[in-house]
Amino acid sequence: MTTTTAPARLGARRLGAAAAVVAAAALLATLLAAAQPALPSLVPGYASWGLGYTDPTWYAYWILGDTTEPILAKSALGGLLMIAGATLAHVARRRGRRWQGFAMACGTGDLWPWVLVAAGMGLLASNLLWGWTLGDWQPTFAPLVSVPPALVIVYGPGWRVASTGAVLGAILVTPIALVLVNLVCVPMNLSPVVGATLAMSLGGLAAFWLCRRLPWFPPPRTMRTSPPQGVDEPPAPARYGPSWVPRRILADFTEAHFYGNEWAGAGLLLGCVLHFLLNPAATAYGSGLLPHLLATQVLTAACGVLLWGGRWAANGWYPTFVPIVSVAPATVLAFGGTLPSIVAGAVLGAAVAPPLAAALARRLPDDVQPMVAYTAAMAVCTAAIIPLLGLLPGFHHV
C-alpha cells in the first residue's frame, strides 16, 4: 500500500486550486467572447483614443489606459480599479487588517504611496514629452513600471527620489523604447513588447549608474538579492497551500507595477472586464481579444505557481509574473488568440521566463533593482518564443 507524502498531498491540493481558477477564467473568457457581438458601445473605442493636450478628459483617459499597458489591456477603467484595489490594501495594512493581502512595493508595504507617486509622475512626464509621437500606438507607458518605482524601492521615499525617477524615466526609458519599437521591432516584425521591455532594462541600467553619482541622492537602502513578497514574515509551507494559489495568481497581475497584491489584481481584472462589457473595441487596442488575453494570463500564472511553487516556499519570492506581462499576452496578439497560441504562450512562458529572470537578477549589484533583470528576461523570451512558434504549423501571424 502506497503512503501519500505530505508534499505530494500539498502539490495535489495546489493543482486542484489552480485548475479551479483556470476553469473559472476559461468559462468567463468563453462567455465574454460569445457575448461580444451583442455588446453595446457605451464608451469610445480604442480607435478614437488620442492624446490631446488641450482636452483634459482624453488626456486623463489615455494616461489611465497606460496604467494597464503592462498586461496589454489598455483599459482606463482597469487602471482606475487597480489603483482603488491597491489603496484598499494599503489602508487595510495601515489598520492591521488580516485581509490586507500581500505586502505591496516589493514587500515593504509602506513604500507603496511613493511608488504610486513616482510612477504617476513618470507616466505624466512621458506623455507630456513624447505624446506628439502618438500618430499610432507608442510605448509612452514605459516609465510607469520601470525606473521611477524602482528607484523608490532602492533609495526610499521622498520627493527627491520620486521626482528624479520620473525625469529619468521620461528622458531615458521612453525615448529608448520609441527607437527600439519603431526602428527595430517594426522592421523585424517583432512584438513591440520586446522593444518596450528591453528599453526598461537598458534605461534602468543607465538610471542606476547615474544615481550613484547624483549629489542630492540619499544612499541606497539595504537591498536583498530579490524582492520577496511578505518579507516581514518568514516563509512557511502552510502559507503556500491551496488558498495561496488564487491569491498569488491575482497578485502576479500587478507585480510589474510594484504592487504585487491580490486586491489590486482583482480590481485590475474587474475593471478590464467591465470596460470590455461597455465596449469590446475599447480594450486590448481594439483587437477584441481581451477575453483571450486574460485567459492566457491566468493560465500562465497558474502554470507558474505550480512549476515554481517550491521556489516560492524556499525563498519567499520568485518572479513568476514575468511571462504574464510579456511573452504570454504577446503570443496571443501575434497569432490572433487561437487556442494553440493561448496554451503555448502560457506554458512556454511559465517554464522559461521565471528561471531566466531569477538567474539574471542574481548577477546584479545590490543597488540595482531586479526590475532590470526581469525586463531583460521579458524581452529575450518574447523575442525568442514568438518567432519559434511562427515556424510551427497552426501558428499564423495576424
UniProtKB/TrEMBL annotation:
Residues 1-35 form the signal peptide. It comes from the Bacteria. The keyword Transmembrane applies. Keywords: Membrane, Signal, Transmembrane, Transmembrane helix. The keyword Membrane applies. The chain crosses the membrane at residues 71-91, 111-134, 140-158, 165-184, 190-211, 258-278, 290-309, 342-360, 372-392. This is Integral membrane protein. It comes from Nonomuraea zeae. The lineage of its organism: Bacteria, Bacillati, Actinomycetota, Actinomycetes, Streptosporangiales.
